Q: What sequence folds into this?
């Protein structure tokens, strides 16, 4: 099956991406992301790990129930309970897939699983058969494949294909492989396994050495026809292979690679912005394809070349990947219907009229402060409205800050905690520091601030600032987001959002631990 030239794009932003500390998403956020992935024509959406928690189950189910044009997949360990739970979550999917896995490297089998290789084969075959009783489409992954022995991989793969696995995924779980070696391994597996033609070979590369995309491309050159990847390269540790880089490399270098995907590339930048906004992980400016500078030509020589003939310095256009595609401007005269329809195009719909009305009221407030409202403003405004509407412990009531040359800044904050208001005043080394200290004086969370970042959402000094606050407490990491044209208020909102997330104290299982 691997002799055609179409590469299946399997997006795991909602599963492996979410395993990034602090990147957890709510069910509604995951649904919005899944809708955007569907719009981008991703072939397979790994929606989550259904058994991880009741919330994860609900998210996978909601995505399986509403996505129609992409296949929806749930991860499961090679355990009966995991497989059954995945099957349950996918029961209404138009096209579903169970993705089951077990580790196959000597180090994982001996120390993590404490199982013999024979037992691992037996459990893998049993898992695939059980999954096939629930669903037609089953993928099997050999965790830590890049450190597994070739002969053992051939043995287990042959047996799981016989048991009914249709996709065989070869992960570089710890980001250890280098391209030539990894491509060679994929080629060897396809050549040596007698029933290899009955399955599609897939790869899943982590970026610990910065080689995830290069390894994935080496693998497709050697015959793999599915690539597992994430938007913005989000994922455990250094992340996964980035979807936008894989897709654009295949498209731009079709002359050499001779392969194609079904992705609508104009949806890449909107997807990247959505992920950055819901996770609070901003995209570095020089990131390929989706970084703010990816198509900016600073130097005079480059600008001159591009103006004379674009292809002197550009190998693809900003429009190809969706820069500016969605920058329809709205303003204070835009009506409710236009507001709703633009948000629907951006992948957001409102469950109730009250939710729409509250977001529209905020839009009008923002339009009074800011002349032109861009898509990025709308996305931030909706996240903010939702965060405030949620049934949360802490709500920001008011904030006032005095800051002047030569004086220590002082903030006075009022926070509503479960229905009653408390006020505190604090001094700080700057206005944001003072505001955070005042909030802490009320909340007394004892959380450690791990990251504070501010991003201008659009251009100009009237831009909203989007603030990310990362807090850590007892090993748990959360990201809070806040947006406002006043960055001190945005910062306070982000801090309070993070406190609410810590307070929610969601417990979930990690698939690989
Ligand atoms: O990195 C990995 O090995 C994984 C598997 C569960 C596919 O994420
Ligand atoms: Zn992974």
A:
């Amino acid at each position: 099956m691997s002799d055609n030239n179409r590469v299946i794009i399997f997006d795991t932003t909602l599963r492996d991406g979410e395993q990034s500390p602090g990147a957890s998403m709510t069910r509604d956020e995951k649904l919005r992301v899944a809708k955007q992935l569907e719009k981008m024509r991703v072939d397979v959406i790994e929606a989550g790990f259904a058994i991880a928690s009741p919330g994860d189950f609900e998210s996978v189910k909601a995505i399986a129930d509403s996505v129609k044009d992409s296949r929806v997949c749930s991860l499961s360990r090679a355990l009966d309970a995991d497989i059954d739970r995945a099957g349950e979550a996918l029961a209404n999917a138009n096209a579903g897939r169970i993705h089951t896995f077990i580790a196959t490297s000597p180090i994982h089998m001996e120390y993590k699983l404490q199982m013999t290789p024979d037992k691992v084969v037996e459990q893998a075959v049993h898992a695939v058969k059980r999954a096939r009783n629930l669903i037609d489409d089953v993928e099997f992954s050999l965790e830590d494949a890049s450190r597994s022995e070739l002969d053992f991989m051939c043995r287990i793969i042959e047996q799981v294909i016989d048991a009914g696995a249709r996709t065989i995924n070869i992960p570089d779980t710890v980001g250890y492989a280098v391209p030539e070696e990894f491509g060679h391994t994929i080629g060897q597996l396809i050549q040596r396994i007698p029933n290899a033609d009955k399955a599609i070979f897939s790869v899943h590369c982590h970026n610990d050495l910065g080689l995830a995309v290069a390894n994935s491309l080496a693998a497709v050159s050697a015959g793999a026809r599915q690539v597992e990847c994430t938007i913005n390269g989000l994922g455990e540790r250094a992340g996964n292979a980035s979807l936008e880089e894989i897709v654009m490399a295949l498209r731009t270098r079709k002359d050499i690679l001779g392969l194609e995907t079904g992705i609508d590339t104009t949806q890449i930048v909107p997807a990247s912005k959505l992920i950055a906004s819901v996770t609070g992980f901003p995209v570095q400016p020089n990131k390929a394809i989706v970084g703010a500078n990816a198509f900016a030509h600073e130097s005079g020589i480059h600008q001159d070349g591009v103006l004379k003939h674009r292809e002197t310095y550009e190998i693809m256009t900003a429009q190809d990947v969706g820069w500016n595609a969605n920058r329809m401007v709205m303003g204070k005269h835009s009506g409710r219907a236009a507001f709703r329809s633009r948000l629907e195009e951006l992948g957001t719909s409102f469950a109730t009229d009250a939710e729409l009305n509250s977001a529209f009221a905020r839009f009008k407030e923002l339009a009074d402060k800011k002349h032109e409202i861009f898509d990025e403003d709308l996305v931030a405004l909706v996240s903010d409205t939702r965060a405030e509407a949620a049934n949360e412990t802490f709500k920001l009531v008011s904030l006032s800050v005095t800051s002047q040359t030569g004086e220590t800044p002082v903030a006075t904050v009022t926070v509503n905690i479960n229905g009653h208001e408390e006020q505190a005043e604090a001094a700080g080394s700057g206005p944001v520091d003072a505001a955070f200290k005042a909030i802490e004086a009320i909340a007394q969370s004892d959380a450690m601030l791990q990251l504070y970042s501010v991003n201008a959402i659009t251009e100009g000094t009237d831009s909203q600032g989007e603030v990310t606050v990362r807090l850590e407490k007892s090993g748990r990491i959360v990201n809070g987001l806040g947006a406002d044209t006043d960055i001190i208020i945005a910062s306070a909102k982000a801090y309070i959002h993070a406190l609410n997330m810590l307070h929610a104290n969601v417990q979930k299982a990690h698939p690989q631990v």
The chain has four domains: 3-279, 295-325, 336-387, 390-504. The chain is about 40% helix and 20% strand. The mean pLDDT is 92.
